């Protein structure tokens, strides 16, 4: 049963991510969440996760597709592989200038689950691939959504 509950928890997290519902995402994580992002510093605590989400929402618009989720038998660990489909909407510190470029890159996340909440999120992707796509797409505009 723990496996199914954890699968539902992570599925709900990804659905909230794709809906841009950061409040829902934050409700699913533990107060002492450990959040490791690719090429970045470790953030500990729900408040740092909130700050990260504010920053990401300002700089990027992303949707995850082709999500493959794996949960261990006792439901304490999970891993997901997915494709990040994004638009770079505001320049992020130390990165190329944002001009609405689009990108698509594979990524993966690892999760630790404790007491019905996500206790750790570790995400990896190829940053150089992202930079190359953004540089190639300079001047490309974000398509208007219908």
From TrEMBL:
* Source species, domain of life: Bacteria
InterPro entries, A to Z: CHP02096, NTF2-like_dom_sf, SnoaL-like
Secretion signal, residue range per the UniProt entry? none
What are the residue boundaries of the SnoaL-like domain, all occurrences included?
Answer: 11-121
Record-linked NCBIfam families: ketosteroid isomerase-related protein (TIGR02096)
| Record's protein name | Nuclear transport factor 2 family protein
Natural source organism: Roseibium sediminicola
């Amino acid at each position: 049963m723990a496996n199914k509950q954890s699968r539902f928890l992570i599925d709900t997290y990804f659905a909230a991510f794709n809906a841009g519902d950061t409040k829902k995402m934050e409700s699913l994580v533990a107060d002492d969440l450990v959040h490791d992002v690719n090429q970045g510093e470790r953030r500990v605590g729900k408040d740092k996760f909130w700050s990260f989400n504010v920053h990401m929402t300002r700089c990027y618009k992303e949707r995850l597709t082709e999500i493959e989720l794996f949960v261990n038998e006792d439901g304490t660990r999970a891993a997901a592989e997915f494709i990040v489909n994004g638009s770079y909407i505001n320049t992020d510190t130390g990165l190329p200038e944002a001009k609405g470029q689009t990108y698509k890159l594979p990524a993966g996340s690892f999760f630790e689950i404790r007491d019905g909440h996500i206790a750790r999120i570790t995400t990896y992707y190829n940053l150089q691939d992202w930079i190359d796509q953004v540089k190639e797409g300079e001047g490309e505009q974000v398509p208007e959504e219908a």
